[in-house]
Amino acid sequence: MHITSVTFQPEKYPTKDRYPFNLSVFHRADRIVFDTRVTFFVGENGTGKSTLLEAISRACHIFLWRDSERARFEVNPYEDRLHQCLAIEWADGRVPGSFFASDGFRQFAQILDEWASSDPGQLQYFGGKSLMTQSHGQSLMSYFKSRYRIKGLYLLDEPEAALSPRNQIELLALLTRMSDAQFLIATHSPILLACPGATIYSFDHSPVERVVYEETDHYQIYRSFMEDRSRFLMGGGVEV
Question: What is the C-alpha separation between 131 and 176, in angstroms, rounded?
Answer without folding.
Answer: 24
